[in-house]
Amino acid sequence: MKIDQHDRNLLQLMQTDAKKGLEALASETGLSVASVQRRLKALRTSGAILSEVAIVDPKKLGVAMSFIVMVELERERQDQIDAFSRQAQSEPMVQQCYYITGDADFCLVCTAKDMDDFQELTKRLFFDNSNVRRFRTSVVMGRKKVGLGIPVQDVGLER
């Protein structure tokens, strides 16, 4: 089943503000409230909408630092890749985990309260892991754009 222009409009609006009410969504898309409700249910059921979450300001919670970490594994066997991936995904300080091509095997986006907090993470995730050959860390100097929005108007999506 293809995602039509009305679905794309709903997806764009939901990516901007997922707590917007059905009436507001209906008004902005030109659809009825019932149609918006049906379409959102279908988008959720199909997996087009994976999750609806609150975006929290890290500084308000005392999480002042962000890091980009490139991780190179010692062995690239599938079981080793899967094991590191599971470990990274289970770590609350790892916001994003990507299995990538190139010089590194993984790219992680991590947060920490301070450098001591990050040092503890490196011990748990990298130094205590015999399959991590090396890791390179870049400290984020400033958050210029943060988001996971997809430009739904520009792509041909299918469900």
What portion of the residues fall into strands of 2 or more residues? 15-25%
Major beta-sheet overview: 4 strands, antiparallel
Under CATH, the homologous superfamily of the largest domain reads: Lrp/AsnC effector binding domain/regulation of amino acid metabolism (RAM) domain
**What is the CATH C-level name of the largest domain?**
Alpha Beta
Structural class: alpha+beta
Mean pLDDT: 93
Number of domains: 2
Helix content: 25-40%
Q: What is the rounded Rg?
A: 20 Å
- Can you write the helix and strand succession as a string? HHHEHEEHE
The rounded distance between the terminal residues' Cα atoms is 5 Å
Shape: elongated
CATH-assigned fold name of the largest domain: Alpha-Beta Plaits
Sequence of strands across the biggest β-sheet? 2-3-1-4
CATH architecture of the largest domain: 2-Layer Sandwich
Low-confidence stretches: none
* Strands, count: 4
Note the total helix count.
5
Characterize the structure shown:
This protein is an alpha+beta fold and 159 residues long. It folds into two domains: 5-54, Winged helix-like DNA-binding domain superfamily/Winged helix DNA-binding domain (Arc Repressor Mutant, subunit A, Orthogonal Bundle), CATH 1.10.10; 58-139, Lrp/AsnC effector binding domain/regulation of amino acid metabolism (RAM) domain (Alpha-Beta Plaits, 2-Layer Sandwich). The protein is 38% helix and 19% strand. The chain is built from five helices and four strands, in the order H-H-H-E-H-E-E-H-E. It has helices spanning 5-16, 22-29, 33-46, 78-90, 115-127; strands at residues 65-73, 94-99, 106-112, 132-139. A four-stranded antiparallel beta sheet has the order 2-3-1-4, covered by helices on one side. Strand 2 and strand 3 (106-112) form a beta hairpin. The protein starts with a helix and ends in a 20-residue tail after the last strand. The mean pLDDT is 93.
